[in-house]
Amino acid sequence: MISKRLELGLFVRFILLLGMMYVTVQYLTQYTWLQVTSGILIMLAQLWEIARYVTRSNNELAKFLEAVKQRDFSQRFNENTNSSLQQLHRAFNLINNTFKQLQIEREAQFQYMQTILQLVDTGIMAVDTETGEVEWVNDAFKKMLGLPHLKSIDNLDRRYPSLHNSLQSIKSGDSTLVKLKLPSGQSQVLVSATAFTMQHRDLLLVVIKNVSATVDATETEAWQKLLRVMTHEIMNSVAPIASLADTLGKHLHMERERYTSEPDVPVDVEVLEDTEEGIGIIKKRSEGLLRFTQFYRNLNKSQQLNLTTIYVEELFKSIDTLMRPRLKADGIEYICKVSPPDLTITGDVNLLEQVLINLITNAQRAVLERPSPQIILVAGQQDGKVTIEVHDNGTGIPDEILENIFIPFFTSHKEGSGIGLSLSKHIMLLHKGTIQVESEEGVGSTFKLVF
């Protein structure tokens, strides 16, 4: 249709040009030079109009392609013209509308994906592998690390050198576990990476996730399995010893009675008393070891919680009644704070009391030799979670043993059993919570329960 109209227009213009040439030739033989000059000018004008007529579609096409190159799809072409460009303009407008719709859909998809990535609690970041510049990072990444903004991974070097080193060396498809001191406490972070190319640039998609709770649960499960085996073997070995000590003790007691009733029977009384005393010690320690292993066996079996709604202020009052006299006797200042006063948690009140007693008892031991000893028990809300913290201004925990304090039977005190903190951690895991610690030698320690 367009080509036919174009051919018709050219044909009409060609006929008019031939007619004008004929008239000009006639003027050349019969009329003046002014008329001949006028005819030549008219023919030149006709030739220019024919050239413009032929090339205007090309001009319109060039104009359209330039708009496409500039991604300007707001331009409209006149479809009401009666010229041969009407259908061409209609086609241009149709393509413009299609591109505009695709652009809107693409922008909507981008906004949709950004919204999803911003809502997930996993940190995600895209990094230019050549320059180290951060192309995009979601809020979870910045919130986890406590950073308001992040332009380059080099900015992590001062605050998180271990994470920076991991990002510098990690390869596509690799995953590595990094220990970091985050604003929420000491944590273990899983770092994974995937490489991709976009617009001729090599990018690295980095994903970080706080897996402390998962690692803690796995470690606790492993320790529980080991303890089940240990308690089983210990009880099987110690029970006969305790029984045998009891039997020997009875025999010795009978021998002493017989000696009392028959003084003529030769016997070394001193050896008899020493032996009886030694057997008594063996029996006592064996029974103590049996009670100790029985406690851990029962702990591993007690997975059912008696869950109730607990007012934290009431919980603190109960702890205060129990612990304040002991702390006051040692000259330790004891402070309790709850904000807001109606703060509640869901849990087993007896087990949580045991956790707080363990932590306050450890704090009491830590501040005994300190000037102006102080223990603060405080509860509140952080990031929508209830937290209970036990602060002390004690001696602190050395860095070399800080990671081991939750291991069963591990203790740095001669009078400690090494079960208090491991028990507290186990109870918090049963409550789907965590226990975190921050400590500095010579300054003090803070244990935080997060529900």
UniProtKB/TrEMBL annotation:
> Record's superkingdom?
Bacteria
**EC number(s) reported in the record:** 2.7.13.3
**Record's protein name:** histidine kinase
Primary residence: membrane
User: GO biological process annotations for this chain's record?
Assistant: osmosensory signaling via phosphorelay pathway
Domain Histidine kinase, which positions?
Answer: 229-451
Localization recorded for this chain is: Membrane
Task: Please write the reaction equations for the catalytic activity of this protein.
Answer: ATP + protein L-histidine = ADP + protein N-phospho-L-histidine
The top EC class, named as a word, is: transferase
Bilayer-crossing regions: 7-25
